[in-house]
């Protein structure tokens, strides 16, 4: 059972994480952060997007196959940007999608 104090502490931690991430975008002069999105992992940049409210987009890039060439999992890229930089993410996603032929891609 969680208390109101637990909730308030969690919100303070979430806000601290969001502030730290935003300050890193500015300090490092980075527009977009890219990383693989591992669909069977609970720790990914998607988690940061959900916790901090930063804009993010995930798009498919292929399939990860095992040793027997059996399909194991879809592979995606997650892109994360600073606050109010959605336009940069949309442009990136548009360009990457134009470079790929995903018409035959089946999950």
**Mean pLDDT, rounded to whole units?**
84
Low-confidence regions: none
Beta-strand portion reads: 25-35%
Which secondary-structure class do the elements indicate? alpha+beta
Question: What's the overall geometry?
Answer: flat
* Percent range of helical residues: 40-55%
First-to-last CA distance: 38 Å
Count every helix, treating DSSP H or I runs of 4 or more residues as helices.
3
- Mind summarizing the main beta sheet? 3 strands, antiparallel
β-strand number: 3
Topology:
Elements: H1 4-27, E1 32-38, H2 45-52, E2 56-65, E3 71-81, H3 86-99
Antiparallel strand pairs: 1-3, 2-3
Describe the protein's architecture and organization:
This protein is of the alpha+beta class and 107 residues long. The protein is 43% helix and 26% strand. The protein has helices spanning 4-27, 45-52, 86-99; strands at 32-38, 56-65, 71-81. A 3-stranded antiparallel β-sheet has the order 1-3-2. Strand 2 (56-65) and strand 3 (71-81) form a beta hairpin. The protein is flat, with a radius of gyration of 17 Å.
